[in-house]
Amino acid sequence: MLKKESTDTTQWDTAVSVNGVTKVFTQWQRENAGRGIIKNLLNPQKKIISALDDVSFKINRGEFVAYAGPNGAGKSTTMKLLAGMLQPTEGSVSVLGMSPNKDRISVMRELGVLFGNRTELWWDHPISQSFEWKKVVWDIPDDVYKRNLEMVIELLDIGELLKTFARELSLGQRMRADLAMMLLHSPTLILLDEPTLGLDVVAKRQMIEFLKKINHENGVTIVVTSHDMDDLEEMAQRILMISGGKVAYDGSFDGLREITGNLTRFIVTMDGGLKLSLDGGKLINANKGVYEFEVDVALTPIKHLLRQLSDANGVKDVEIKKSPIEQVIAGLYASWKKEMV
Amino acid sequence: MVKIKRVLRLYALYAKMDLAWLLRDTTFAVLAVLADVITNLSSVTGVFLLAWRFDGIGGMSRFEVLFMLAYATIITGIFQTFCAGGNVGHISRRVGRGQLEHMFIQPMLLPAQLATEGFIPFSGSSNLISGTVIMIIATVNLGISLPWWWIFSLIGNLIVTVAIVLGKSYLASSLTFYAPVQAEEISSYVIDSFGHISTFPLSGMPLYLQIPLITFIPTGLLAWFPTLALFGRAPFNLPAWYPLLFAVVLWMIATYFFRKGLNFYVKKGINRYHAMGHRR
Predict the structure, then answer these.
(1) pTM for this entry
(2) Res. A3: pLDDT tops 60
(3) Residue A312 contacts B, CB cutoff 8 Å
(4) Which of A13, A46, A164, B242 lies at a C-alpha separation of 20 to 30 Å from A179?
């Protein structure tokens, strides 16, 4: 659908390799009218859904990759395939050089998985008990456990939660505890499916900072899905976008902006009563003398726009920033939807 | 050796977690123990009173009936102690609720996880303890001398019977892979419903009822057959090891269908997830 940026993979080992993966599901279909119910009884109708259609990509060790796409695009399916919870209909998946299905135990020793809508914590036990459970099940050596426990307590600020029962934690606290538990065995690759789901601003900040830190300092490879594109842009260096079961974009966030047109926001404050228009600019907002334009600077050179602004009467202040990634993505999703129709 | 050590560590861990769970609140612990004792006693009282009133049932003496009831209670107790935690015994619940995926991400073989995670020796052992006490009372009152190896025969029979209970549960639960919503509770129906029937002595019943109940619907193998076999009177002159043979065949069939279901599960996936019920 969109251009694919070339990435040099020779200098790093591959953490994830997905080759020609297709994953097909069936969905029951039924008309709701009386005749449909009878017809369904005799001849049930099923629809074949391709959650993933010949998808291929590679993720290198140490990368922080955002895996994004509209609802139903196949994000969670990919995560489940990588975590060995599902098998592909066609194609192959390799995680840390192993098959998540055939070498499940070896993969799980090095992999951390966190789904935002489910918890690995023991509900009716204090958090420290869940951590102890993890130590035994994952057979974590004492020194590694102690070191990691100290690290997660400090970085995720969960010292005061250790004696609290999981069922009594707030969502943000629970997510931090889950994330801490996931890291106790020093995973080299972590898969996060909607980890910021339902978190407030403070909890989200803590999680993002922590993930960036372990990626940067410990070299942990991270693949994360989220609906919050601004969060993803802040965290990840690369974005893999999926739509209709296919990889629609694989590259940097800046590259994504270029593809959708290099949309830039100009926020101009004018002296009372004076109006302004910009060449190639689309007026997004005008309020009490503050005008917000969106301009594709690939089409209208920024030099020209600055000249226009400096020649204009009554310009008090100018602020220039990139369009929010949320908006760029929303535009993309809409165009993909049209293409599919 | 290392694997055995790890499994023992897991048993110790789950035992500790169970004790901590039971003792998290004194009132809760007292009420839980009291409720279990009342339930256990009431479950055997009805049939035993009938046996007492009619001086035995179908050729079994009062205390043979009591022994059989104790045997059934111990079976429930072993199941509760080793398999009740996290619905490991009632595996259809875990499959139907999409919770099996939690097990896929643990670096352990699935059978090892299933064998250890259900261990709740403190909150689950009330049936085992009360069943043992009732069995001692019944054996003493039977007034028969038993050889030294009889106790090993008893233990062997108990293990085989639990294997049959689990085999039934896992065989029935294989359906849940294909119909998660409809079959979510199938293992509890299979275990509990047939478990209730197992406390009734089948002696004296017509053959057309007895034979199906030790073959297709093996309720008679859960207490009645082993009780008579332990006293040297196995029904239909079948060898005392017939339940063992049955358990082996049942496990082979259950393993085949459960694996088949598991393969279906990882290929097709399950569009269902309930957060509660597998960890407490």
Answers:
(1) 0.83
(2) no
(3) no
(4) A13
